[in-house]
Amino acid sequence: QVQLVESGGGLVQAGGSLRLSCAASGRTFSRVTMGWFRQAPGKEREFVAFIRWTDDYTYYADSVKGRFTISRINAKNTAYLQMNSLKPEDTAVYYCAAGPGGTLQPNYNYWGQGTQVTVSS
Fold first, then answer.
1. 10-13/115-120 β-pairing
2. Rounded-to-integer distance, Cα 100 and Cα 33, Å
3. Parallel, antiparallel, or unpaired for β 3-7 and 18-25?
4. What is the widest separation between alpha-carbon atoms in the chain?
5. How confident is the model at residue 70 (pLDDT cuts 50, 70, 90)?
6. Integer Cα distance of 117 and 20 in angstroms
7. Nearest 5°: phi and psi at 31?
8. So what's the pLDDT on residue 74?
9. Would you call 90 helix, strand, or coil by DSSP?
10. How confident is the prediction for the chain on average, in pLDDT?
11. What percent of the chain has pLDDT over 90?
12. pLDDT digits (tens, 9 = 90+) for 83-105
């Protein structure tokens, strides 16, 4: 069992940065892939990035590649999403998730409650 709590969201101007954190409870954190997803108003939730537990391999959606960085510190049971060069279209509720991994939501067993990110133009 893994419980996830996101933090770090907020309001930022376009071009700014935010770092989201995802604190996990449970002894299996180091053995799950961590993913970030987001849901913008009126849109479906979409994949953002994941970091694989076996080798820390990372993968990003094209829309955030080169601007966002996913990382994890297993000793702290925490995953991060560093978001730079933010754009208004990045405005969404951001969710972290844990599970076998990949880009598909059904591949993740555990989800956080989400944190709001708002980027003003």
1. parallel
2. 6
3. antiparallel
4. 41
5. very high
6. 9
7. -115, 20
8. 87
9. helix
10. 95
11. 84
12. 999 999 999 999 999 999 899 99
How many other C-beta atoms are found inside a 10 Å radius of the C-beta of residue 10?
A: 13
Sign of CA dihedral 62, 103, 12, 76: negative
The one-letter amino acid code at 21 reads S
- DSSP E strands, the chain: 3-7, 10-13, 18-25, 33-39, 46-51, 58-60, 68-73, 78-83, 92-99, 110-111, 115-120
- Residue reference for tokens 């601007």: 67
Alpha carbon distance 4, 108 (integer Å): 12
On whether the CB atoms of residues 37 and 97 are closer than 8 A, the answer is: yes
Q: Is 106 helix (H, G, I), strand (E, B) or coil?
A: helix
Query: Using CA atoms, how far apart are residues 41 and 56, in angstroms rounded to an integer?
Result: 31
More confident residue, 115 or 32: 115
